Amino acid sequence: MTKLTYHVGAHDGGYGYRLGDVWSETFADHDVALSAAKSAAERQHLEGRDAEISYQLSDGRWHSEHVDGGDRPDTEVVDDGTGAPK
User: What string of pLDDT tens digits covers the 86 residues of the chain?
Assistant: First the structure.
């Protein structure tokens, strides 16, 4: 099973959460960013429909695949701290 880890921390003058290298929108408050990350992680557990998806790879190529709407990842939220916004 795939595991997704959302990290919460200082971002762009406020706070946000990230999955890999991709950041969420910026939130003014750490607790709001943490709540948003928990909500995003919980939504990963909702079943959806099977679908054909396409996404761009890091080398710029596009990849297409079939995804099973019932194949849901395990998720966690890691709080990287409430340090001063960067």
Answer: 689 999 999 999 999 999 999 999 999 999 999 999 999 999 988 888 888 989 898 899 999 999 888 888 899 999 998 766 65
Residue with tokens 């959806």: 48
Q: Which residue has the tokens 């395990």?
A: 74
Q: Strand 51-56 relative to strand 74-79: parallel, antiparallel, unpaired?
A: unpaired
The length of the chain is: 86
At residue 40, the 3 state secondary structure works out as helix
Q: Which token pair is 46?
A: 């909702």
Assigned token pair, 85 = 């916004």
CB 80 within 8 A of CB 51: no
